[in-house]
Write a structure and sequence with these properties.
CATH architecture of the largest domain: Roll
Order of helices and strands: HEHHEEEHHEHEHEEEEE
Shape: elongated
Number of helices: 7
Number of strands: 11
Helix content: 25-40%
Number of domains: 2
Structural class: alpha/beta
Distance between the termini: 99 Å
CATH class of the largest domain: Alpha Beta
Radius of gyration: 39 Å
């Protein structure tokens, strides 16, 4: 009996050895890769522009500045050296301390509307032009680097005598609009000294109403004046530089109009 059991056990063991091995289930092998490198976003440039310079920058040039940087308006006057750590580029009207001039500069002009009474009288228009003294006007701006432009003026007494001879011993009244140009109060004071009182209205560039209803316009963009303002009656008063200071290590390029752009 025992012999028969051993024979059966050996037969079962042999049968098990002849069975094929089970095939392992397929396994998805995920290839290993290095972590993707994410490029750091370029740091946004920051420009500080003083409020006086902002008013004289042409819109097209301002748009180019705004495309390349965040712009913050800084009350003038200011020292750009104290703002070097806060801004990549500082732009101001006049010669700023420790700065350099941009190719862009502005000319402040007084335009006369000779189509509007009483300036349609050539003699009265001549009195207005002759009342402006560009040296005194430029000094009143208090902008470093501003230069008075050549202009023939007459003494206040001579102009008052002229007005009296024209039947206006007490002078006359005019309206003056400033479209962003500095010096409106200085121009009004010079006219008042000969008996011409002016009502001054100040506007940001592009925000003024119909300028043709004003007798005088103080502007830095004489090319945009309405046709009523005769170019021959334009008085160029002062040339004012625009200056800038950039952070260390930046490259400066310029807009077509001559304003600085900072590049890393």
């Amino acid at each position: 009996m025992r012999k028969r059991f051993v024979i059966i056990w050996l037969a079962a063991l042999a049968a098990a050895a002849c069975e094929p091995e089970a095939t392992p289930l397929p396994v998805d092998i995920v290839p290993t890769t290095s972590p993707a490198t994410i490029a750091a976003a370029p740091q946004t440039m920051r420009y500080g522009i003083d409020d006086a310079a902002l008013l004289v920058i042409p819109p097209d040039d301002y748009a180019l500045l705004a495309d390349t940087a965040e712009i913050e308006i800084i009350p003038s006057p200011f020292d750009p050296a104290t703002l070097a750590a806060e801004y990549d580029l500082v732009i101001g009207l006049g010669d700023l301390p420790e700065s350099q001039r941009a190719p862009f500069s502005v000319t402040i002009s007084l335009a006369l509307n000779t189509a509007l009474s009483p300036l349609d009288d050539p003699e009265l228009a001549a009195v207005v032009r002759s009342a402006i003294q560009t040296d005194a006007f430029t000094a009143a701006l208090e902008l470093p680097g501003a230069e008075a432009l050549p202009h023939e003026s007459q003494s206040r007494q001579a102009l008052r005598t002229t007005l009296a001879n024209l039947g206006l011993p007490d002078g006359f009244d005019l309206s003056l609009a400033s479209t962003g140009a500095p010096g409106a109060a200085a121009a009004a004071a010079q006219l008042a000294a000969v008996g011409i009182e002016t009502q001054v209205s100040e506007f940001a560039p592009g925000e003024a109403p119909d300028l043709s209803r004003y007798h005088l316009i103080l502007t830095t963009h004489s090319e945009t004046l309405p046709a009523a303002f005769d170019a021959s009656a334009l008085v160029a008063l002062a040339a004012v530089p625009v200056s800038y200071r950039e952070a260390e290590g930046l490259t400066i390029e310029f807009t077509p109009g001559g304003l600085p752009l900072a590049l890393p």
